[in-house]
Amino acid sequence: MAPAREGGLARRLLSLQGLFALLSGGVPREGAGARTSGAGCHSTEHPVFSYSEIEPWIHRFSEEDTVDYSQLTFDPGQSELIVGTSSVPHLPSSLLSPFSHFVPCFITVPLQAVDWHCDDFTKAACFSRGKSEEECQNYVRVLLVNGDRLFTCGTNAFTPICTNRTLSNLTLVHDQISGMARCPYSPLHNSTALLTASGELYAATAMDFSGRDPAIYRSLGALPPLRTAQYNSKWLNEPNFVSSYDIGNFTYFFFRENAVEHDCGRTVFSRAARVCKNDVGGRFLLEDTWTTFMKARLNCSRPGDIPFYYHELQGTFYLPKLQLLYAVFTTNVNSIAASAVCVFNLSAITQVFNGPFKYQENSRSAWLPYPNPNPDFQCGTIDYGSNVNLTERSLQDAQKFILMQDVVQPLGPRPTFTEDNVRFTHLVVDVVQGKNRLFHIIYLATDYGTIRKVLSPLNQSTGSCLLDEIELFPPGRRQPIRSLLLQHGRSVLFVGVQDQVIRVPLVRCGFHRTREACLGARDPYCGWDLGLRRCTALEESLSMKQWEQNIRECPVSAALRLALAG
Q1: Which of 117, 298, 318, 337 has its CA at a distance of 20 to 30 angstroms from the CA of residue 345?
Q2: Where would one find the signal peptide in this protein (predicted)?
Q3: Which CATH superfamily is domain 511-566 in?
Q4: pTM
């Protein structure tokens, strides 16, 4: 049977047109049962849990005339979920997802509701510049928890603004500042941002109305504002920003962009870039500009005489304790659909940044390797609050040497997981304690509204295992997934889509009614309790000795699993 929902988990939802605070529901709907249906498998070799089967286990939240549930974050102190949305009250209802009318229940009840509208003057200015009613709204694009404050930015009808709010009372705005260089103008532009412990905001976004001036920009805090060089394609070339991380002395950014070093037509490469957090910019040369910006190509490809490349980075997930970066890549949208997951060690990224540069003297010259004048650079040569150590030569080098010669290679000779005829859009990774070891479980969002559950390779012989797939929407009403957020320690996944946010419990051992089905699923969350005589999570077991788990190979076939389930 379906397990009881976690009670007492409060959630708060921030809407661009409204702020909502949410309190979780505590029990499953009546009649919820564990089933494994052959119809849900669609003749595939992995189990597919249909919408009707998964629906009793999940909770949904939606608000009328509210769209774009794409920004999700947690208030860790209160175990509250904050969700950024937008309200588009004047759109015809046909442009809104009709599935909102089919939502059977909410995951929560609001704790707060606070509007954040564009004013009429700002919207009129947006219309006058040729933008549509849909575009001239306020879309939340930055949600960052900073102590007891929430820093949030919205597009504000192509006039971005940012506010600092009190977490315990989202209606209380402490200050409002310009969102330029902190938030995109257009809701269609990708961006990423983070706040450091010392209060600096690092943002990667478009800095102008047209979106032609992308930048990695630092503001706020005690250090001077800095950005990447303006209108210089060797620094950034039509990038799509994906993610950012604060790691040690550096801030890392991950994105995809047009490859300036590729001479034969237009090709997109995926990048890792970094800057020193104590960078203060140059004097005369590179003034107000990063002096430590470097970038390198990320490789995710199938090996062979002619490798098959997954060029376009879509999402990342970083495990800080292991210093591992999981990344999902796809082929170009005009190519055959295919996706892959590659895993990168931070040490491999660091090694490439310590290596030679790739340099082009002028547009007619070939790209050639150039020795790195500062291998094993750790930001120590830059004085806090001073740039006295920056010589003219070092600034010239910083201006010229941006791209690394070597390519960052993933762990292993081939991708961790590949799938043809599908495009993955986001991923998260849960680290699960099994009976005898830790397992990494990868959750992959598809562009048609399902979640794939993949077990990271157990060893070189087995490779990864596709454990199952869940359908979040009924047939004919699927929609792309816009965001994924994993709640650590509670085994809960939050999924943001166009018209709602969905809470999915990751531990669903009750689906497996027999010992054979439980062990055959190879699910790291689940094992067979000999004393209770049912499939349980490790935490529910009466004794570790009584808890059986067998994960030495991939799951049994779907047909056999159905037979075992009875």
Answers
A1: 337
A2: 1-25
A3: ligand-binding face of the semaphorins, domain 2 (3.30.1680.10)
A4: 0.88
